[in-house]
Amino acid sequence: MINPPLFLSNKLKQIEAAAARAGLPLMQRAGQCSADWIIKHHPEAQTIYVLAGPGNNGGDALVTATLLHLAGKTVLLRLSAPSGPMPAQKALAAWLAHGGQILSSTPNQADLAIDGLYGIGLNRQLGDADQQIIAELQALACPVIALDIPSGLMADSGDATATIHATHTLSFIAHKPGLFTGKGCDLAGEISLHDLQIPGDLFLAPDGHLQTQAPSSIAQLQRKPDSHKGSYGTVGVIGGATGMLGAALLAGRAALHMGTGRVVLGLLDTSLSVDSVQPELMLHSAHEALQHPALTLLAVGPGLGQSTEALELLRQSIASSLPLLLDADALNLLASSAELAAAMRQRTAASILTPHPAEAARLLHTSTQAVQANRIESAQALAQRYEATVLLKGAGSVCANEQSWSINASGNAALASAGQGDVLSGIIAALLAQGLSPLEAVQSGSWLHGRAADDWRKAHPNGIGLTASETISYARAALNQVLGKC
Questions:
Q1: CB 3.0-4.6 Å disulfide test: which of 69, 75, 181, 400 passes with 158?
Q2: Where, in this chain's numbering, is K(+) bound (predicted)?
Q3: Distance CA 124, CA 290 (A)
């Protein structure tokens, strides 16, 4: 299976325009495939409420309503405003010609609701009248099928305020990134793609892609018989201040389990001389670890804290010629120092940043809300500002460098627990140490981390109680399973 391409709305509109010039009846095709899908997947639904807006998305809903009416369904149609584009006007005329009626309010009940209020052209927050219509639709407490995208959800960013919460989204032509990151992960429900039979030569190059399966680059991790621990890198994890030793231990254990040849922990709190759970880890003071002769890369931040000593360790790490991964407090210290930001841009070795939204906001000197309002743009801005590969964590994690971006499709809310970010840092560091490029390591690491949670959830369907320590073994199993299929 190929990872699906993702298109921003501007490019989707260009594809639609090319299809229109080619004489393809896209609105009719969208309505036909929607009606067919609904009849197949919801045959029991007899009374169907259709909410149609003023644009082409509303026209899709009108065609769907007409076809469902002709199929013997009781269709209750409400128009939020007069139809605008000519194809939508023709769809309305066809609905009326077949005896369809128009409601002035939301019905009291329905077996199924169809959302055709707004499509990908929406670039503003919804007004009070639309918000009221949406609230009334949701109050029906029946399955909701969104046509192309849930109304109110921004197709390019995944941002939303008052929005349709769909049971299923029928995505037309190609997938939109907003369906798979940020609030889209909650609002879109299950998603199916319907290309409307548009020929491949009318498509433009995609803007990004959705990582639905293991990156093919993982195949590079296959091991040769004539190799040794030095063949697979030595990761130095710098962190573990007093009260936060566990973060560094988790990162180190994850790096070891995911194939790193050796792991050196450089700890600010030197009270621990051996990890009794993972005695293979080599424990040193942070300053000693930075001088370890075998290091091939540094992962700085798990449990680092923001002390003066932590700041100096970060400064030395950035000045190092080794590949560098920064997470947690390393990111917060970086955000507070223009000097360190400039030093990051001067590095010649690879740099990786793995912020969650609040850390990303500090790095960009903006608000968490602004980061979440456009996660893709935020990840790209971080990559450009710090000349680094970026993993913006959260629902639909965004992987980006200065040239490209993707959205990770694996994972679930079971990962919302302490220490998961430390484990993810260790996973990415291990993959980088074994030879993957920074972007390959970030994409593969985020996918494997999410896959670990998906596999765990098969035995725990409610998704509560996954610890970071448990995630490590599931991620290793996922990696070996993928390698077994290469």
A1: 181
A2: 57, 115, 151
A3: 50
Angle between helices 375-386 and 338-345 (to 10 degrees): 80
Pairing of strands 389-392, 398-400: antiparallel
For 131, phi and psi rounded to 5 degrees? -60, -35
Query: At CA 412, angle to CA 406 and CA 413, rounded to 5?
Result: 125
Structure tokens belonging to residue 399: 């992987």
Three-state DSSP state, 361: helix
Q: List residues forming the annotated binding site for (6S)-NADPHX.
A: 56-60, 119-125, 148, 247, 303, 356, 422
Using CB atoms within 10 A of its CB, is residue 192 exposed (0-12), middle (13-18) or buried (19+)? exposed
Residue-level pLDDT at 163: 84
Binding site per annotation, positions for K(+): 57, 115, 151
Residues 318-377 have pLDDT tens digits of: 999 999 999 999 999 999 999 999 999 999 999 999 999 999 999 999 999 999 999 999
DSSP string, 114-176: EEES--TT--S---HHHHHHHHHHHTT-S-EEEESS-TT--TTT---SS----SEEEEESSB-
CB 134 within 8 A of CB 152: yes
| Overall size of the chain counted in residues | 486
Enter the tokens of residue 474.
Answer: 């599931």
Please name each of the domains of the chain with its CATH number: 5-209 (3.40.50.10260), 216-485 (3.40.1190.20)
Q: Is the pLDDT of residue 134 over 80?
A: yes
Distance, in Å, from the CA atom of 166 to the CA atom of 161, rounded to the nearest integer, reads 14
The one-character DSSP state at 170 is E
Confidence of residue 397 (pLDDT cuts 50, 70, 90): very high
CB count within 10 Å of CB 178 equals 31
In 3D, which of 319, 295, 293, 300 has the Cα closest to residue 241?
300
CB count in 10 Å sphere of residue 171: 21
Known binding-site residues equal: 56-60, 115, 119-125, 148, 151, 247, 303, 356, 393-397, 421-422
Backbone angles phi, psi at 181, to 5 degrees: -140, 160
Q: What is the DSSP letter of 435?
A: T
Q: Which of 154, 151, 192, 186 is nearest to 174 (CA)?
A: 192
Q: Between the CA of residue 218 and those of 97, 405, 432, what are the distances in Å?
A: 57, 18, 11
State pLDDT tens for residues 400-449: 999 999 999 999 999 999 999 999 999 999 999 999 999 999 999 999 99
Would you say residue 53 has pLDDT above 90?
Answer: yes
Please, which residues bridge with residue 103 across strands? 78
| Whether residue 301 has pLDDT greater than 70 | yes
- Residues of each annotated binding site for AMP: 393-397, 421
